[in-house]
Every structure is written in structure tokens, then in C-alpha cells.
Amino acid sequence: MIVSTDPVRLDPGVESWNVMRENVWKTFRFTNRTARLSIIWGVLVPVGVFTFCQRQDLKWDILAAKRDAPLARFGKFATPKSERNAVVEADE
């Protein structure tokens, strides 16, 4: 009976993939696809998230909001709901 001293049996496919993944920096080249993905995920996504956060940053005033006070600081929802309803009824 053969007894193995290794706790885990190594899979040659997994081992070759691991060696390839660890050494990718030696053979990496920018192609059209990798350049496009680098620009999208390295520039456009962070700029988009930053822009979204900047626009939302000062828009809402949630701390210490009173019961009928509006949460928005500016825009359509900056006026109380009762005043918005009064404007709609006055227009009719």
C-alpha cells in the first residue's frame, strides 16, 4: 500500500496556470483591448464615481431634519411638499 506524505495532491493544470499568472508581468503588452480596459477601469469609472459623489454631496441635508422639512437643499424637492402642492393647485 502506497502512503503519500503530501497533504494535497497537486493538479498540473492549476500549477501551470498559477505560474503563468505569477509571471504575467514579464510578457504583458498593451493591445487595443487591454488599453481600452485600462482607460475605462482606471480613468472613466473613478471619474464617474467622483462626479456622482460631488453632485450628491451637498444636495441632501439629512442630519437633524424635522418632520415636514425637505431633505434636499436645492432643486425641485427643496420646498416642502405642502408648498409644492399649493403651486400645482394654483397653476390649475
Question: What is this entry, summarized?
Answer:
This protein has helices at residues 12-22, 24-27, 32-57, 81-91. The chain is an all-alpha fold.
Describe the structure.
The chain is 57% helix and 0% strand. The chain has 92 residues and is an all-alpha fold. It is elongated.
Could you give the order of the helices and strands? HHHH
Strand content: under 5%
Binned, the helix content reads: 55-70%
Mean pLDDT: 83
Number of helices: 4
Radius of gyration: 29 Å
User: How far is the first residue's CA from the last residue's CA?
Assistant: 93 Å
Poorly predicted segments: none
- Major β-sheet profile: none
Described by its quaternary structure, the protein is: single chain
| Strands, total number | 0
Structural class, from helix and strand content?
Answer: mainly alpha
What is the overall silhouette?
elongated
